[in-house]
Design brief:
Strand content: 15-25%
Oligomer: single chain
Radius of gyration: 14 Å
Order of helices and strands: HEHEHEHEHEHE
Strand order of the largest sheet: 4-3-2-1-5-6
Largest sheet: 6 strands, parallel
Helix content: 40-55%
Distance between the termini: 28 Å
């Protein structure tokens, strides 16, 4: 029980949640619905969003949901993929970086906790690195996976 109490205290102290998720909508409509609901929950809890900076797929739905609710969004987009992915142009704090490594580093620095929603290989890679850093003691920020469907 002590571990759960410590994690709950860290989550309560969080200001920004980094959410890893897909630049596609996924195969099931529940993924898009959950991305929207997570965005609304962040706003309701007074938490900011840190994410990959994309305006399409689950990332776009999530960011648009937070923006619609009046929340704070930090998008982190590498210049090397800005042309391939549709960069969010709405009222967000967009951070352009030079590489994927810098993207992850800045997302980690801005975040107080991490959450993974459905996504592809990129989501898996981001989550795996975050969990590895946690295991190595490089951070003690809460990490979670939201299992949908």
């Amino acid at each position: 029980m002590m571990v759960n109490k410590k994690i709950n205290e860290k989550v309560k102290a969080a200001r920004n949640i980094c959410v890893f998720c897909g630049a596609n909508r996924g195969r099931h409509p529940a993924y898009a619905e959950m991305a929207y609901e997570v965005g609304q929950l962040l706003v309701h809890k007074g938490l900011g969003l840190v994410y990959g900076g994309c305006s399409i797929g689950l990332m776009g739905i999530l960011a648009d949901s937070v923006v619609a609710g009046g929340g704070v969004v930090h998008g982190v987009m590498p210049k090397v993929i800005a042309d391939r992915e549709v960069t969010h142009t709405g009222p967000i704090n967009l951070h352009m970086v030079d590489s994927m490594h810098q993207r992850k580093q800045l997302m980690y620095e801005l975040a107080d906790a991490f959450l993974a929603l459905p996504g592809g290989v990129g989501t898996l890679e981001e989550l795996t690195e975050t969990l590895t850093w946690f295991q190595l003691g490089l951070h003690k920020k809460p990490c979670a996976i939201l299992n949908i469907q």
